[in-house]
Amino acid sequence: MKQVFFRLSVSLLLIMWQAAVFSRDPGDKLFQVNGFCINAPSPAGVDRFIKFINDELAPRGVNTLLLLVDYNYEYQSYPQLRDSAALSRADVRKIVEACRRHNIRIIPQIDLLGHQSWAGHTNNLLRCFPEFDETPRVKMPEKYVWPNSDGLYCKSYCPLHPDVHKVVFALIDELCDAYETDAFHAGMDEVFYLGDDSCTRCAGVDKAELFAGEVTRIRNHLAEKNRELWIWGDRLIDGKTTGIGIWEASYNYTYRAVDMIPKDVVICDWHYERPDQTAVYFALKGFRVVTCPWRIPEVAVAQAEDMARFRKYATPEMKPRYYGMMLTTWMDPDRFIDGFYGIKPDKPRNNEEENRANKPWNTFRAMCKRMGELSEADK
Predict the structure, then answer these.
(1) Within 10 A of 55 (CB to CB), how many other CB atoms are there?
(2) What values do phi and psi take at 289, rounded to 5?
(3) What are phi and psi of 86, to 5 degrees?
(4) What's the rounded Cα separation, in Å, for the pair 128 and 308?
(5) Which stretches of the chain drop beneath a pLDDT of 50?
(6) How far apart are CA 89 and CA 104, in angstroms?
(7) Helices and strands counted in the chain (H then E)
(8) CATH code, 200
(9) In this structure, is residue 11 part of a structural domain?
(10) Which long-range contacts (CB under 8 A, 24 or more apart) does 87-95 make?
(11) Integer Cα distance of 57 and 51 in angstroms
């Protein structure tokens, strides 16, 4: 009888252990976000991109696809803002269906506030609505150089213009509906023009309050339809105190906005040349944070190891805030796929040997491999 009872007890314990392991809360996953950020494809490149999703993203466990769309969509609300060759609703549906098959969450992005121009080119929003320009006094140069006397990196729209959100929110809603998504990325990185002294609406207004106000306004609009806001995190870091500088952090005092914006905004914390550990800073401030590498494999591996360690040794309150990793590419899918498969050599940067190794496709492979190893060790 004792032997029967012992065997039953062992069997019961084994069943309980198996149930605990196999019904593990997905919230216990080491990396909640295994992300990939890339430009939305051209209409001609949709099928090739979907094949890449099937063949490469899904097998590596990618569960979040950040698509940099901007004006690469046939908007109905403001058709004048479309790119000359833009994705149709049918094109988008094919991407959505491919991602749904693999449980990949799509998050579309439109660059808001900053990045309304690039080099000597004005982007679609300010080209069609020049009245939204924060700095109309700054004229686009025929030949762009940096640094320049105007401090022009990219144009911004004025966040206090009375008509800008009517346009912006219509685009957001239409894009989120098309991609059938519960999240939207607003960009908002590298905002150098804000609260300009020549702007009749913004002059003299605290830049942190302006930045926080725009984040909150977009977040609140999305929340009306139970959608989540993601942004890049650089404007919320004090560039001077940390020594991180003007690109990956702020020199124009927007960093104080970190204490003014809602805590349900997801922060994409990008550092490319060095694995700065600012994920801890954002988590301490109450935000979920995703660490974002780009082109240096060793940096991405170090960042994955950091995020795994932060989460492993975090308190129950802090643990969910270390949200995961996302590779950024800053190129169109055809170029990335060509590089990934070695079809076409990429343009050299500086050192030829360094150029061969430091590519986003090599970084993607290295990041996913290390994340897989760390996740397996955490089971």
Answers:
(1) 10
(2) -135, 135
(3) -125, 155
(4) 45
(5) 1-2, 4-24
(6) 19
(7) 12, 10
(8) 3.20.20.80
(9) no
(10) 87/40, 87/41, 87/42, 87/43, 87/46, 88/43, 89/178, 91/43, 91/46, 92/178, 92/179, 93/178, 94/46, 94/47, 94/50, 95/41, 95/46, 95/49, 95/50, 95/53, 95/67, 95/179
(11) 9
Going by the DSSP 8-state scheme, the letter that residue 81 receives in this structure is G
Of 325, 329, 334, residue with least CA distance to 361: 329
Strand partners, 65: 36, 106
* Tokens describing residue 50: 């979907």
- Quote the number of domains for the chain: 1
**Read out DSSP for 97-154?**
HHHHHTTPEEEEEEEESS-SEETTEE-HHHHH-GGGBS-TTSPPPSS--SS-TT--SS
DSSP-derived secondary structure letter, 73:
B
Assigned token pair, 287: 């935000």
First to last CA, the chain: 36
Tell me the backbone φ, ψ of residue 284, rounded to 5 degrees.
-65, -30
According to the model, what pLDDT value does residue 355 have? 76
CA distance 278 to 256: 15
pLDDT digits (tens, 9 = 90+) for 32-61: 999 999 999 999 999 999 999 999 999 999
Length of the chain: 379
* Residue range of the domain that includes 206: 32-111+179-377
Distances (CA, A) of 357 to 304, 326, 333, 343, 368: 18, 19, 19, 16, 16
Burial 24-41 (b: 16+ CB within 10 A, else e): eeeeebbbbbbbbbbbbb
How confident is the model at residue 109, as a pLDDT?
Answer: 98
Pair of tokens at residue 182: 């519960």
What six digits make up the tokens of 160?
């206090």
Whether 74 is in a domain gets the answer yes
Strand partners, 35: 64, 326
Cα separation values, 92 from 78, 176, 178, 300, 378, Å: 18, 11, 7, 30, 36
3-class secondary-structure state, position 328? strand
